[in-house]
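assembly run, all chains below
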Amino acid sequence: MKAALKKFIFAELIYHEAPDRFGEDDDLLEAGLDSMGIMRLIMFAEKEFGVTLPDTEIEPDNVRSLNALEKWIQQARSA
Amino acid sequence: MLLEPFMRQCRCRPEAPALRENGLRLSYGELLARSQFIAAALQGLGFMPGQRVAIHLDRGVQAVAAVFGVLLAGGCYVPLDLKNPPARLAFIIKDAEVSTVLGLGADPDWLEGVAWLDVERLPSKEFATVEVRSTDLAVILYTSGSTGCPKGVALSHGAVAAFAEWAADLLGLAGGEPIASSAPFFFDLSTFDLYSVLGRGACLHFVPSGLTLSPSRLSAWLQEQAIAGWYTVPTLLAFLAYKGNLAQTPLADLRFLIFAGEVFPSPALVDLAESLSATRLYNFFGPTETNVCCHWPVDRQCLDPSQAIPIGWPAAGCELHVHEENGELWVRGPGLASGYWSGGRLQEILNREGWYPTGDRVSRNERGEYLFHGRLGRMLKCSGYRVEPAEIEAALHALPGVKGCVVVGLNDPTAGQRPALVLALEPGLDLGEVRQFLQRRLPAYMQPCRWQLVEELPRLPNGKTDYQAINSLLEVS
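ok done. output:
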C-alpha cells in the first residue's frame, strides 16, 4: 500500500522532491502537499484500496507522512 | 478614493466589527487608526504619494492595515507571495522600484538597498491626509510574464473601485454580515474582501490557514462563525462538497458563494449545488488585467455534470467583443488595468482599437451567455496560478549547460494544467542539479510535473520548435 501511495504522490502531486530520498516519516505537507493534493490523494486511495475515508477524519495529521497515511487507511478499512 | 466607502463606514459606524482573525477582533475605527498609524510612519520617512510599497505579510489583520496604510499615504501597494523563492521576490522588489517593504520582524537576507519597516515597531508620527485621484495606481499584482520575467499588472483606484462597487451591489452586501476571507492579497480575488466587504460595513473573518486541509473542520468553522458569504477558488469548494460533512453541517447562514481563478469541474459543482441548495452561487471570470469581466449566477436548472458551465454575462461595467477571426475575447470598461508596470512607466495593454485582447478563446451559446474554451497563447493555468512557459524556460536558460528546453501544459482533471518539460543538457550537468536550480528560482506551482531528457530538441524544418513532437514525447513518457 505504501509503495502505491508513494508512487501516486510523487507522480501526480509533488514534483519537486526526489522520491528516492523521501523517507516514510518525512513531512508531505512541508514538501508541498496542499488541499488540492489531499483531495486527489483521498479520491485515489478510496478507489485504489476500496475504502471510504470518513469526512471528519480528514486531518493534517492523517496525511502528514506515508506511514501516517497507511495507518489511517488501514484503520478505515478494518472499521 | 478606493477607500472612500470604507472611510464612510468608519465615520458612520466606527464601533462595528471589521476584522476577525482567530481570537483577534478589530472594529472599523480601530482598523482606521492602525492604518493611519502605518501611513503616518511612512510619511515620517519621507514617503511621497505615488511611490510603491511592498507588503511582505501573510493575509490577515496586519496585512489589511498595511495595505490601507499605504493607500492612505497615497501610495501603491505591491503584495508579495511569501512562498516565492527569494530570487523571485528580489526581482519583484527591484522591478516595481518599491521605496519600502512592510513586514514583520527583521529584514530578510535577500533584501538589498530598500527600506524595511517592521509593522510592529513603527515610530509614532502625525498623519496628514492625502488626496488621491481615480487614475492613481492603487496596486500592482505580479503574475507570470511571457517575456520570461514576472510581470506587474498595475490597477488604478478607479479600476479596483469599479469592480468592488459592482460586486457589492450584485451580492447586496449589508453592514455587519460575516464574510469569510481566504484569498492571499497577491490574488485579485482579495479586492472583493478588502474593498467590497469593508466598503459596505460587513465583517471579514479570516479563514484559519490550517482549515483548508480539513474540509469538515472548515464547514464547522463556517457554521460556527455564521458566515454569510465567501469568494474563493473552486478547489476548496470542491473539497468541501466532496468531504465537508455538509449533511451534518447545513450552513444555513451562507447566502452566497463566489468562485473564480480556475474552471470549476461540473460534477463537483453539481454536488455543491445539491448540498447547499439555498446558497446562491456565482462564477466570476476575468484575467487580472480586467479583474472580473464576466459573471454567471449559477442557474441550477442548467447544471449538467457533463458540460462546462458558462462564464456568463458582462460584469462590472465591461463591454465584451468576440474577435471574428479567432474567437478571442476583447474587453473594455472601467475596471481595466492601467498597464504593465515596466521600468518606472506603464506599458500599454490596449490594442489599436482600444480594447484589451485577453488571449482567452470564447463563444456565445443560444442564451447569449459567454463560454470559455481555453487560451490562444502559451499561458497555462495551474491550480489557479497563471504560468507562462517562457518564464520557466528563461529560468532554465540561465543555467550553464542547459542546451535547450521547452515547456508545455499537460491537462489535469483537478489542477487545470500542469507544466511539463522537455530539455537537452550538455554532458556533465545532471538532472538533479537542474531540479535544485529551478526550485531556488521558481515557486512550487511552476515546477514541471514531467521531466523528459532528450539529445536534441525536436524542431520543424524551418527551425521552429516542433510542439507536436514535444507533446508526443511527454505523452508516452
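Chain A touches chain B at residues 12, 15-16, 18, 29, 32, 34-36, 38-40, 42-43, 53, 55-56, 58-60, 63 (CB under 8 Å).

Helices of chain A lie at 2-13, 35-49, 60-63, 66-78.

not gonna interpret more than that til we talk
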